[in-house]
Structures are given as C-alpha cells and as structure tokens.
C-alpha cells in the first residue's frame, strides 16, 4: 500500500459484554508487525463505531501521521510496541471515549512541535464520563 493510506481500520462495533478481540500471536518471541500507512491502526467512528475492542500483542511502526488513532469508545490497548510514527497514539477530539492502556511501550515517536508519543482526548459530549487509564 502507498504510504498515504490508512493501513488497518476497524469500523464495526463489539459489545460491552462481548468486545472484539484482536490478538497478535508471537512467533519466536516476536509480535506481528503493522508497518506504514498514514494511520497504522485506526478505530473509526463513521456510521457505526468501532467501540468495544481489545487490541493486543502487536508492533506498530512507521505510520506517517498516527501509529494508533483512537476514535471510538471502550478500547483496550495492551502489550503493544509503537515506534517511529509521527504521533504514537492519538485520541480524536470528537467521538472518542474511554481508553485503557496496559503494558505498552511508545518510543521514537514525535517529530516536530506538533507530534507526540501520546496525545489523548476524550469527547465528554458523545461519551459522558469517559476516562483515559
């Protein structure tokens, strides 16, 4: 795929009691790699939202804008390594809700004054009581 595209997009919802689990399986101790794209991985709100996900066990690298774009609600990110992206993890100003971040490593992200390892926002209007943990 050309580098100006989104690499992996999740756009369908799970439920609070049955979240969608995307789990990388290590081979010889190495995580599966998601490499490139404008957004390496996006949890998108458009029509139906990519709410209620658990995403774990991956390496995300070389995204030209966002390694992981949090644009949904009730998202768990676990056991990830995110590096060499313009922004490692970015929460959308609109439509983003609760996010739980566990055992993740963000390094070598952020190039320039507007880029970050982690830049988080939650939309209290769309998801009252949302938290970043």
Please provide a written account of the structure.
This protein has 133 residues and is mainly beta. The chain has strands at 8-10, 20-23, 33-35, 39-43, 45-46, 48-49, 53-56, 59-61, 66-70, 75-78, 81-83, 87-91, 99-102, 105-107, 118-119. The strands form 4 sheets. It has a 5-stranded parallel β-sheet, with no helix packed on it. The protein is globular and about 35 Å long. The N and C termini lie far apart (33 Å).
Brief digest:
The chain is an all-beta fold. It contains no helices and 15 strands. The strands form four sheets. The protein has a five-stranded parallel sheet, with no helix packed on it. The chain has a four-stranded parallel sheet with strand order 2-7-10-13, with no helix packed on it. A four-stranded parallel sheet has the order 3-8-11-14, with no helix packed on it.
């Amino acid at each position: 795929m050309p580098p100006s595209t989104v690499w992996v997009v999740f756009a369908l919802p799970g439920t609070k009691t049955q979240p969608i689990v995307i789990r990388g399986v290590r081979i010889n101790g190495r995580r599966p790699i998601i490499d490139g794209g404008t957004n390496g991985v996006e949890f998108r709100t458009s029509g139906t939202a990519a709410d209620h996900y658990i995403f774990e066990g991956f390496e995300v690298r070389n995204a030209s804008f966002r390694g992981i774009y949090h644009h949904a609600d009730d998202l768990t990110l676990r056991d990830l390594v995110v590096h060499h992206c313009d922004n490692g993890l970015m929460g959308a100003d609109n439509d983003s809700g609760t996010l739980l971040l566990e055992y993740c490593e963000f390094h070598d992200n952020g190039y320039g004054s507007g880029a970050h390892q982690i830049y988080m926002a939650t939309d209290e209007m769309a998801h009252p009581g949302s938290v970043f943990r």
